[in-house]
Amino acid sequence: MFHRNQILILFVGMLFFLAACGQELSTPAGPSPATTPKVETQVVEYVSETHDYSLRYPDYFSLESTTAEETVFFIGSLLNVQNPRLSVKVTEFGDQSLEQAVATFLADFDGYKILGTDLIVGNEPAIRLDGVPGQDLQRIVLIVRNGRLYQLTFSPEGASSTNIQGVLENFYDTVIDSFEFR
């Protein structure tokens, strides 16, 4: 009888041990680089007084002005390029047109299939370029206003993870729908 109780206690103890190990293995110590939030979040407004624009973005993104002309919105670390991110770069462009900006931009990608789509952003004509090569494929929106070229670069476009691509699409929609010139 004593022997049977020891085996039962050992068996139950092993079940608890295996259950605990299974839980530990399925719950990583921290977020993986490709982890993206899955919960409904709030949006935050960013205003660039220097470059006369504003936009809204999900509150789980961070931002950093990497240069006087560029602000990057990212999840986790600025160096993490697996998660969706946005770079907004504003440069002086003189009296050139949107068509000239697109032609100049596409000249660097001769031979690549880049799809262009006309749209309106902040009540200004813009063009969306899909499939732009880079470290990852990128979606770039170009806008020309008051002698400035606004380049919004969203990446990674066409991510292998459905979750990451879904977050990028929602991020893109939030930014483009809220982008305004001041």
Care to give the gist of this entry?
By secondary structure, the chain is α+β, with helices and mostly antiparallel strands. It has 3 helices and 10 strands; from the N terminus they run αβββββαββββαβ.
Description:
This protein has 182 residues and is an alpha+beta fold. It has two domains: 1-30; 43-181, 3-Layer(aba) Sandwich (Protein Transport Mog1p, Chain A). Helix content is 29%, strand content 35%. The chain has helices at residues 2-26, 98-107, 162-178; strands at 43-48, 53-58, 62-65, 70-74, 85-92, 115-121, 124-132, 138-145, 148-155, 180-181. The strands form two sheets. A seven-stranded antiparallel beta sheet has the order 3-4-5-9-8-7-6, with helices on both faces. The longest helix has 25 residues, at 2-26. It starts with a helix and ends with a strand.
* Number of separate structural domains: 2
Low-pLDDT residue spans = 7-34
The CATH architecture of the largest domain = 3-Layer(aba) Sandwich
Distance between the termini: 84 Å
The fraction of residues in strands falls at 25-35%
CATH evolutionary superfamily of the largest domain? Mog1/PsbP, alpha/beta/alpha sandwich
Order of helices and strands: HEEEEEHEEEEHE
CATH topology of the largest domain: Protein Transport Mog1p, Chain A
What's the pLDDT, averaged over the residues? 83
How many strands in all? 10
**Order of strands, widest sheet:** 3-4-5-9-8-7-6
Kindly provide the name of the CATH class of the largest domain: Alpha Beta
**Alpha plus pi helix count:** 3
Q: What gyration radius follows from the Cα positions, in whole Å?
A: 24 Å
Please outline the major beta sheet. Answer: 7 strands, antiparallel
What is the percent of helical residues?
A: 25-40%
Protein structure class: alpha+beta
Q: Tell me, what's the shape?
A: globular
